[in-house]
Amino acid sequence: MTTTKRFKLISEDGHEFIISKVALRASKFIVDKLAEAGITEENCETMDPLLIPFHHVLVKQCVDWLNHHQCDAPKTRKIKYKHFSKWDKKFFKMESGELFALLNASHALGIDELMNMGCAVAAELIRGKNVEEIRKIYGIKSDEEQMEELLANGGEGTSTMTFTVEKY
Q: Which of 36, 55, 117, 137 is most buried, by the most CB atoms less than 10 A from its CB?
């Protein structure tokens, strides 16, 4: 009887995670870094953990998603939130800032299916919302707010060029 070998990952803040070869295949970053480090199924249990450059909360979310979807990750870019499983809807129930951090991590780790699903969730967050509600969800300041902030900071970043328009 063969046992599935487990690969060790470590977050930037020192938390260790275990993941199977089947689950990690969906991450281009992890696959490439394991190859670069010479970590194989034969030596994975004796090698140092592979450093994943994110906080343990994000690494845990990615590992949980990879483990859950190791055999059935959606292979389409056009997945819609309404087609998510109950597990995925529960998984993505998070604040927008947390979602955007997860999107960043999934992009950096090359977990395309997770990123696509996260984008579907981000789109669902703004469905039917007006501009002000969308600004609030995404943390986008209005042009006036940005200008006030720049002026309050001494005009740092504002243009000093002036233009003249000649009349014909």
A: 117
pTM of the model as a whole: 0.77
Domain range for residue 132?
A: 6-140
In a domain, 84, yes or no: yes
Domain of 53: which CATH number? Answer: 3.30.710.10
Identify whether 164 is part of a domain.
no
Going from the C-alpha of 116 to that of each of 79, 82, 122, the distances in angstroms are: 7, 14, 10
Q: Is 136 domain-assigned? A: yes
pLDDT band for 76, please (50, 70, 90 cuts). Answer: low
H or E, element range at 150:
helix 143-152
Tokens 């343990």 appear where?
56
Using the predicted structure, report yes or no on whether residue 1 has a pLDDT greater than 50.
Answer: no
Q: Residue 154 burial by CB count (10 A; 0-12/13-18/19+): exposed, middle or buried?
A: exposed
